Predict the 3D structure of the following.
Amino acid sequence: MNVIPLRRTRGVRIAAVSMLAVAALSLTACSGDGDSGSQTSGKADSTAPAASGSEIKGQAGKSDKDPHSIDTGPTKTLDDCDINKTDFDVQKVQRPVNHMLLKATNTSAVECKLVGFPTLKLGKNAQAATAVIEDSRPQSVKLLSPGESAYAGITTSATDGSGDGGRNVDYLEVSIDGNEAGKSVDLPGGSVYTDNGARVTYWLDTPSLALNW
């Protein structure tokens, strides 16, 4: 008669012990998960590669330059064309009226720059150089390779006849930037009529551009 209560008591104790064990295991698992998360987070932070000194220098030295741009190196420096190695020729044209075409050819063995416009002296007794047409200024300086030419248009007199001081001249002197002395150039037909309406363009690429003014 005393056996049954003993078994029940033992069963109750076993069940209680089992429940306590399960509860303890659950707490341990929860604690382990928390620690694991912290450890994982810590490992993730600690395993991130640190930038070396050379990498930091490299990043600090980077510029905002377009990575697709082409570095052509330092700009090439050219000398002014030498007037003694430049050939000049003047031609009279039918159109426009009262115009001549001045051609300058680089006869040297090296490339040179022909800056600005030709300084003209129409007549040996000319008091001033021929005025330039400012609107004819190109966007860049004319560079001449060996044998290459540039052109300037010369308006010999006012096209509407409004010019003063008209006269025939048989002398033309051309000077170019970077040179002190000028060079005498033969006029077509030996002489030309000019007045204070005479003008000259900047050095341009083609005869049509030069005669457009």
Notes: The chain has three helices and twelve strands. The two ends are 137 Å apart (CA to CA). Residues 1-12, 27-32, 34-63, 65-74 have pLDDT under 50 and may be disordered.
